[in-house]
Amino acid sequence: MKAPYKPNKINIFEEEASPTWSGIIGGLLINFAAVEYASFRWVDALSNGNDIMRDLSIDMNFSRRIALIHRLIDRAEWPEPRKEEAKMMWTEAVKLSEIRNTIAHNPLCSLPDETDGLKMGVINTKKMKGVGPYLIEVVSLNEIQSSGHSLAELSAKLHGFLGKPRDNEGEPV
Questions:
Q1: What is the pairing mode between strands 136-137 and 108-112?
Q2: Helix (H) or strand (E) holding 161
Q3: Which residues pair with 109 in a beta bridge?
Q4: What is the pTM of this model?
Q5: Is the pLDDT of residue 1 over 60?
Q6: Are 134 and 128 in contact (CB under 8 A)?
Q7: Residue 170: predicted pLDDT
């Protein structure tokens, strides 16, 4: 006979916390989207506007696209310090994508803390094997907000690194 499911004693996201958390999570996701958009620009620029490369990159997940960008950077006719700076920025993007993935793919819950209060956390569904209870990975508002700010700064650097986007005639857009 199969063992019964043993859920954690938690509450799904509480309504009164919604405005603060949703605003900060929204900022994180918007800033991640700007970094993701930068990755498409980089593939386009580093492949000299090759339509097939651009189209293939659209179908890739983020980590595969960043691996492609690293390979294209290796082949770019840039000085080594510029290549290293570019790779470091994309490595940072991959690290920041981890918190985005945790937030985007797992339920946000409140659970009792050691002082009889509540703390917010995320049940990482990738770790929900077996019958539970499951590990609660606490994610603070400050951590999400800090990552959102880091993504905003990184987005500006990534877009600035390539210069202004240009149209088909080479004019800035």
A1: unpaired
A2: helix 141-162
A3: 12, 121
A4: 0.79
A5: no
A6: yes
A7: 55
Where do runs of H (alpha helix) occur along 2-79?
Answer: 18-46, 51-58, 62-75
pLDDT(46) > 90: yes
Query: Cα–Cα distance between 38 and 141 in angstroms, integer?
Result: 26
Burial of 13 (0-12, 13-18, 19+ CB in 10 A): middle
User: Could you tell me which residue, 112 or 159, shows the higher pLDDT?
Assistant: 159
CA dihedral 5, 8, 10, 11 (to 10 degrees): -20
Helices (H) and strands (E) in the chain, counts: 5, 4
Rounded to 10 degrees, the C-alpha dihedral 113/29/94/36 comes to 170
Residue 24 has pLDDT above 60, yes or no: yes
List % helix, strand, coil for the chain (3-state, nearest 5).
60, 10, 30
d(CA 108, CA 162): 36
| Distance, CA of 149 to chain centre | 12
